[in-house]
């Protein structure tokens, strides 16, 4: 989602401490003791959606890391090879997603299938079932709750004997892992967590539809976590906030996804609140308010088309930004973290590449799970996957961090691992 102008971006120094990515460049051993990624034994990762935005970024991340041999399944290899530079240098095969034999051929000998097709709800369960039938682990960077449910229904009655992981992207995915990582780094139990998502970037119609399917659920919008349990209000309550790196005022709306509900329960939080934040009075926010009032009358496709047009018009001569902000409080301490990336697509692809590594090195066991199964410390590796991604922490509230973000705030300090 977009909604803020270039003038809203604050690039000044601040009291945050950059986190340097952990050194995971050496190949990791598999069960045989052989380093996966060596020339002697390099696994094959099959990829669907390699010519899409997330798919191209995922392929680039994997290729740069030397993670695996990539086998890219596309509808028309000749046409798509000419159109997408991301296919160059990789094995490309024609695949018919509606033909089980064609999918089976793509999956033969693969160590993992990464499905980056986007919100293709009708076909997702079929693809996951084909992977399971071929005993190939499955990773979905884009899946939300609805997608996870659909895949679960498709696999019902089948023993899930390989890893099947959904929602390993930015939101869900990195957002939940970031909250878990921050809370786990404090020396005493965390009592309360708040988090914000700000996305300023062009959008595709499919992504807009996926977003609307979530935010138009008013029960999720109005929910928060109080007294150790989920509470639902009749209507979402808007909160006015300021965040580091965003110089303009923001309006934030509560949005308690199942990902963050699980994080709150697992962390034993007393209180938690999570928000989507938009530029106060911006055209995107006005569009969303209008859409919310017509959601019972117009189709999701119509509403997504309107939102896509509004967002992309608002992005003319504007710089993209994807920002995740989390604040954690214990009885006596507070700590905040900011994750910034060039786009939500980049962060999704980066986490998917790290998730792929975890699966093919057998650090993730069999079963149907969400991105929660990934180690929270993976967020410290995200800056190493793309030079524009940054992770910073501050022993202050987000409000204080934002107010202290001035040119004279001093040099940032560096840290070599998780916050202590």
Biggest sheet details: 10 strands, mixed
Counting DSSP E segments of at least 2 residues, the number of strands comes to: 17
Shape: globular
Instruction: Quote the beta fraction.
Output: 15-25%
- Give the CA-CA distance, first to last residue: 33 Å
Q: Count the helices. How many?
A: 13
**What is the H/E order?**
EEHEHEHEHEHEHEHHEEEEHEHHEEHEEH
Poorly predicted segments? 1-7, 9-14, 20-40, 407-420
Tell me the helix content: 25-40%
Radius of gyration, in Å, reads 21 Å
Summarize the SSE layout with pairings.
Layout: E1 17-18, E2 44-48, H1 53-65, E3 69-74, H2 77-83, E4 91-94, H3 100-107, E5 112-115, H4 121-133, E6 138-140, H5 145-154, E7 163-166, H6 174-185, E8 190-200, H7 205-215, H8 218-221, E9 223-226, E10 229-232, E11 239-243, E12 246-254, H9 258-266, E13 271-279, H10 283-294, H11 300-314, E14 321-330, E15 334-341, H12 344-360, E16 367-370, E17 390-394, H13 398-403
Parallel strand pairs: 2-3, 2-5, 3-4, 5-6, 6-7, 7-16, 8-13
Antiparallel strand pairs: 1-17, 8-14, 9-10, 9-13, 11-12, 12-13, 14-15, 15-17
Report on the structure:
The structure is a single chain. The chain has 420 residues and is α/β, with parallel strands linked by helices. Helix content is 33%, strand content 23%. It contains 13 helices and 17 strands. Strands 1, 8, 9, 10, 11, 12, 13, 14, 15 and 17 form a ten-stranded mixed beta sheet that branches. A seven-stranded parallel beta sheet has the order 4-3-2-5-6-7-16, with helices on both faces. A hairpin with a 2-residue loop joins β11 and β12 (246-254). α3 (100-107) crosses α4 (121-133), α4 packs across α5 and α7 (205-215) crosses α11 (300-314). Residues 1-7, 9-14, 20-40 and 407-420 have low confidence and may be disordered.
